[in-house]
Amino acid sequence: QVQLQESGPGLVKPSQTLSLTCTVSGGSISSGGYYWSWIRQHPGKGLEWIGYIYYSGSTYYNPSLKSRVTISVDTSKNQFSLKLSSVTAADTAVYYCARELIVGATYYFDYWGQGTLVTVSS
Amino acid sequence: EIVMTQSPATLSVSPGERATLSCRASQSVSSNLAWYQQKPGQAPRLLIYGASTRATGIPARFSGSGSGTEFTLTISSLQSEDFAVYYCQQSGTFGQGTKLEIK
Q1: pLDDT for A57-111, tens place per residue?
Q2: B62: Cβ–Cβ under 8 A, 6 or more apart, which residues?
Q3: Are residues B94 and A47, on separate chains, in Cβ contact within 8 Å?
Q4: How many CB atoms lie within 10 A of CB A111?
Q5: Chain A residue with minimum CA distance to B9
Q6: Helices then strands (H, E): number in chain B?
């Protein structure tokens, strides 16, 4: 059973960089076939996909966040990470990591972390 | 960018009854659509992918249908644990959600 767990600071100051890590257990990121994503949910709102990374390091980001997002992978630790720069209060959200399967034009997220609330405030 | 629109925003249904949730895409997405269930304080859970294939462990009372731009999630006989928010998703875009509440 694949499990994902987010970790990182719950409070970030405005203009700083939000940094989160997702640790994967029960499966290897290096085995391929899956993409590793970050998704966020503003309080009381819907879901917003941030971007994904493949084990090889290739990435794809939501165009609306692309200028501020970096996703990286550390296969030796079976982890992938999110950095979001120049944060504002609008970046306050629950951040989820998830495993994404892409087959042709079919995309879906089959395993999710429990989510971590990140608040942007001075 | 494809926009996913869900309706209604809130649906009130009695336990044991059928619930029908809709999702519309702004352009054809073929059968490339997934549905998720989210309960308060929890991560979303995959229910349906490929428009109609149930994910592992999902009860048979959940079914998905549709293709192109119109999709439906049907819950045939609502159980207490089914009252939640439901999202449709295509590629990197989610619908805004439908809250299924007890009538």
Answers
A1: 999 999 999 999 999 999 999 999 999 999 999 999 999 999 999 888 788 999 9
A2: B35, B47, B48, B54, B73, B74, B75, B76
A3: yes
A4: 20
A5: A46
A6: 0, 11
- CB-neighbour burial class of residue A5 (10 A; exposed 0-12, middle 13-18, buried 19+): middle
Q: B95 to chain A: nearest residue by CA?
A: A46
What are B88's strand-pairing partners? B35
Residue B50's contacts (CB-CB under 8 Å, 6 or more residues apart) are: A106, B31, B32, B33, B34
Place of tokens 């009695």: B14
* A100's tokens: 């994404």
| Residue tagged 């992938």 (tokens) | A80
Kindly report the backbone phi and psi dihedral angles of residue B95, in degrees, each rounded to the nearest multiple of 5, phi listed first: -70, 175
